[in-house]
Amino acid sequence: MMRLYYTLILLFAVLAVTSCKKFLDVAPADRTGSSSFWQTREDVESAVINCYGFVFEKFNDFNSPVIPAVGDMRCGGIGGVVGAGQLGLGFKTISNNDLSNTTDLNVPERYNLVDIDDWAPYFESIANCNITLSEIEKMEALTDDEKNRYEAEVKFVRAFTYFYICRLYGDVPFYTEPYDKTPRPRTSFVTIFNTLIAELDAVKDDLPWTPSNTSDLGVRANRASIYTLIAHLNMWVAGFDKANQNKYWQDAAQKCLAVKNSGEFELLPLEETKRIFKGKTKESIFEFELNRNYGNTSRYVNLGQWMTHSPIVNYGANSDLFFSRELMERIYPPDKPDKRRDIWFYLPYVNNQTFMFLKQINVADPAGDWIFEDNLMIFRYADVLLLGAEAFANLNNNTEAISMLNMVRERAGANLFAAGAENLSDAIFWERQKELIGEGHRWYDFVRTGRVLDPNQALTYLTQEEFDRGAWTWPIDAKARINNPEIVLNLYWVR
Is the Cα torsion angle 203, 208, 210, 216 positive or negative in sign? Predict the structure, then answer.
């Protein structure tokens, strides 16, 4: 951790240029590393934008498929190429939740799955946020309202980074002060999440529901993204702090309802799927932007990039990977209507590599390599509605739960929920599986609801003993202990 702080200021402009090309008017490195940098509102704007850049740099790593590997592949049901040295073998190993040695998965070097073990880039993001918050507080060029808005935005980015890494690794060191070089042990993520919920609650209304600049829609924090993150924090910790579940469910339910009642968001027709996942729509709550015009595209950030072939991309007649028939029939029963199955998939039950996943197919150059520019969706309005439905159902408020669930089903052309015909909690869970497939939520939904322990629901299931020993987490690279001997690795994955 210590060396991160010595280089952090110099990294501000560098990472902004490489990972947030949209925001080109950033201060050069020699200014951001000097005491004269923090002078104007424009300096603050550049620094705040860089907060997003740090974490996105990890997500959009051209060396490693972070989001697809950790969010969807671990759930099982991944088929694909299995020849020696092919990526399908490694990803199918992940699909069986075998992460015991992510340096030895027989995948091409360019996929670098071991990079996911390295949590240092996330702590760079957190340290950057801590420094930015400290400097904003001292800025005389800002009004109090401007300070409040910028601080709320940076606190969202910091809280989101902790939210992400705690779901990935479990307990982590907790840093909130600038230039803190203390080697800290791992703090319980329940404690961290409760701290973050309180912090975000204090600033949640300092941002508008939607930005005044439409080009910032979805890609910069707003009131809805803060409310949604608070709801997700609550729903995650409720799965582990069971003695206080009702408190978490109540807060999550009210936050999701507030987003719904704001009137600022809507579900777009599924026929407009390409526009939805290109981003910046009324369905967007928070996303990271990918755009070739800003030199910013991706090979690995979305799962669909391994599940398409000609004529979508110039990549032959087969996809590298596919969802198995067993998984597809479980999520989308063939005898039930669902426009998501019909629009998002080609040959959904074929069980071979002629299958295609068409949810994320904004291709930068269809005649060339498989470079995509679908925005990386973090939170969508459909996610908010289903998370709220789940919270209300847990509180036995079935009226509101069914209303939110049916908003999503109606858009999908699916059968509406009728009391007595289905178990409500199960219906909401599987609706999230249908709606959010490929967006990095599926594994985490199985873990936080405990369904990962049920072999009748999870293709890649865990025993209680495996779960308790940390099989739901990702391995942590041993180099995390070089500058912090207080760190204990995730021992389930240590051979």
Answer: negative
For 462, list phi and psi in degrees, rounded to 5: -120, 150
Task: Tell me which DSSP letter residue 207 carries.
Answer: S
Residue 237 lies in a domain: no
Do 273 and 417 sit in the same domain of this protein?
yes
- Is residue 31 domain-shared with residue 135, that is, in the same domain? yes
Distance CA 429, CA 443 (A): 12
Six-digit token pair at 222? 């707003």
DSSP 211: -
Based on the fold, state whether residues 17 and 157 are members of the same structural domain.
yes
Q: Tens of pLDDT along 416-455?
A: 998 888 999 999 999 999 999 999 999 999 999 999 999 9
Note whether 196 and 95 are same-domain residues. no
- Token digits of residue 54: 């740090």
Can you give the pLDDT at residue 313?
A: 84
Which amino acid is residue 462, in one-letter code? L
Please state whether 416 falls in left (phi above 0), alpha (psi between -120 and 50) or beta.
beta
Q: Give the burial class of 345: count Cβ atoms within 10 A of its Cβ; 0-12 exposed, 13-18 middle, 19 or more buried.
A: buried
Same domain membership, residue 415 and residue 377: yes
**Residue 191 to residue 89: CA distance in whole angstroms:** 38
Output the pLDDT for position 94: 81
Domain that holds residue 29: 2-62+118-206
Write the CATH number for 184. Answer: 1.25.40.890
pLDDT (tens digit per residue) in 11-33: 443 333 333 333 323 333 333 44
How far is C-alpha 85 from the geometric centre of its chain's CA atoms? 28
The DSSP string of 287-309 is EE--BGGGTB-BSSSSGGGGS--
Structure tokens at 202: 């204090």
> Is the domain of 95 the same as that of 171?
no
Looking at the structure of the chain, the number of domains it has is 2
Q: Are residues 183 and 296 in the same domain?
A: no
Residues 447 and 473: their CA atoms lie apart, in Å, by 10
Q: Are residues 365 and 453 in the same domain?
A: yes
From 14, 11, 13, select the one nearest 45 (Cα to Cα).
Answer: 13
First to last CA, the chain: 25
